[in-house]
Amino acid sequence: MSHMSTQCRVALFNFITHINKLAEIVRTMLKFKDHKLEYFILIIGLIFIHAFLMCNAFDGKSINSENANQFGSFIGGYVGSIFTLFSIFLLIITLRDQARNNFENNFLELVKFHRENVDKMEIKQHRSLKVFVMYTREFRKLLTIVKEVAKAHNLYFNSLENKRTILNITYLSFFFGTGPNSSRVLQKYLKDVDEKLIDNLISKMNSSKEEYKKSFGYTPFEGHQSRLGHYFRHLYHTVNFVHNSNYSQEKKRELLKILRSQLTNHEQAILYFNSLSSVGKDWDNKNLIRDYKLIKNLPEGFIDEEREINPKLIYDFLYEYEE
Question: Which helix (H) or strand (E) covers residue 160, if one does?
Fold first, then answer.
């Protein structure tokens, strides 16, 4: 009996040593962040499976020859439990990896659709990426007109608050344009602004259409909501799709960096102006541009800090030109 007790103690000691080594391996595995849940389940499962070792029957004092004869059957059940646990562990990893792959494939499809949306854009002879060049030019020309009208109503482009107000008026005027229905919608969106200012602005935009038609190659100031409305809804959905996922912040930034790489400088500029307006406020309210640095690639000076607003004042992160 004493000999068997000693053997049991030695076996138990060796077993515990192996468990400690296994625990060390598991701690190392836990460093791999993508499968923390699976490793946690594995550890808990191993603890429960080995809980019986705490019983008196395995302290080296209670095992007798009859118990030893039954030990083989016990080992079969014990090893079976281990294999069952590992099977569950591997199944969970497989399912989670599959879900992750599906998510990333869906994201890449959204990026593909974004590029297709841009490729389908056209204004007269301007197509695809060239359209955003024209958007930027038209916006800036309209900003000059808005400043002129605003100044006549004692609204000056000086303080940051006034600058944001004028840029909001400009973007909404650029987005909705003027016309039988567009002017009415524009007035509703700018109901908090001096009514006379908006009436004069609409009048000035209407009278300027023919003047700038030749230089733009199309009639400006008629609005772009039919194009940009769809563009920004899809872009926002794509960013939000990643933002609301269960990925780490680092992984989200990694994915959205792929999307950002698809945005030209002019697209990022229009996104910036959109975010300063009331129709694009969610970009700022949810910190999407700030957290994922969606306009990081804007070159230094691309946004005129005197005539417009330096993006650094609104979104203070490290831009590409600062690296």
Answer: helix 160-176
**Residue 26 CB contacts under 8 Å (≥ 6 apart), including other chains:** 39, 42, 43, 46
Tokens coding 61: 């004092």
Q: How far apart are CA 280 and CA 17, in angstroms?
A: 61
CA distances from 171 to 35, 44, 245, 271, 300 (A): 45, 57, 31, 11, 22
Check if the beta carbon of residue 315 is closer than 8 Å to that of residue 280: no
Rounded Cα distance between 39 and 36, Å, is: 5
d(CA 101, CA 87): 21
Amino acid at 89: F
CA separation for the pair 107, 294 (Å, rounded): 16
- Distance (Å, rounded) from C-alpha 271 to C-alpha 292? 13
pLDDT less than 50: residues of the chain? 1, 3-4, 64-65, 68
**Long-range contact list for 149-154, CB < 8 A, 24+ apart?**
149/197, 149/200, 149/201, 149/204, 150/197, 152/200, 153/194, 153/196, 153/197, 153/200
DSSP 231-272: HHHHHHHHHHHHHTSSS-HHHHHHHHHHHHTT--HHHHHHHH
Q: Please compute, for residue 198, the number of CA atoms within 13 A of its CA located in the half-sphere on the CB side.
A: 21
Contact 145, 201 (CB under 8 A): yes
Over the stretch 210-266, which tens digit does the pLDDT of each residue have? 999 999 999 999 999 999 999 999 999 999 999 999 899 999 999 999 999 999 999
Per the CB < 8 A criterion, the answer to whether 139 and 205 are in contact is no
